[in-house]
Amino acid sequence: MKPIGIFYATREGQTRRIADHVAGRLREHGVAARVRNVQDLPAALTLDKYAGVVLAASVHAGEHESEMVRFVRKHRAELERLPAAFLSVTLSEAGAEKKDASPEEQARFAADVRKMLDHFVEQTGWHPQRVKPIAGALQYSKYSIIVRFIMKRIARQAGAATDTSKDYEYTDWAALTRFIDEFAGELLSR
Questions:
Q1: Could you give all domains of the chain from N- to C-terminal order, each with its CATH number?
Q2: Alpha-carbon distance 65 to 70, whole Å?
Q3: pTM exceeding 0.85
Q4: Dist. CA 60–CA 188, nearest whole Å
């Protein structure tokens, strides 16, 4: 079996950690996996050497990373032919998953996540077969002063942590593992 290509776009590194986790989990199933940052890909890259793909992109200011949008536009026809999954990494998903939030708050965050995913589809024309929103992280230590200020305001509105002396991870690793286990099962049953 050809390897699974795991392509990611990230700013502070959480999406890279997620991509590495996906690769590790696929390898535990005996599936070869190759992790690649879409920023570092050669222009002549094709997806024909992959048996499937997992794309992971973080969201900033309501937009998925522009390099991932360009990658998907360029490779849309190939993506449509391959088993594929899309991981949308966003702080809004943390709000949708927040246990102590009211149902109305959770619904508002879930609507924000859906809006970002719909916008990604509009931008790229790609309709992923499998989609998993993933809660990201607040990495205050990696933000510039201006971004830290903005993220603190966003976090306050979302009911997330605002102490900028620490970083906060919201990724549900167990849910991601279950999603990848299902994807691996589908790949192996082909």
A1: 4-138+169-188 (3.40.50.360)
A2: 9
A3: yes
A4: 34
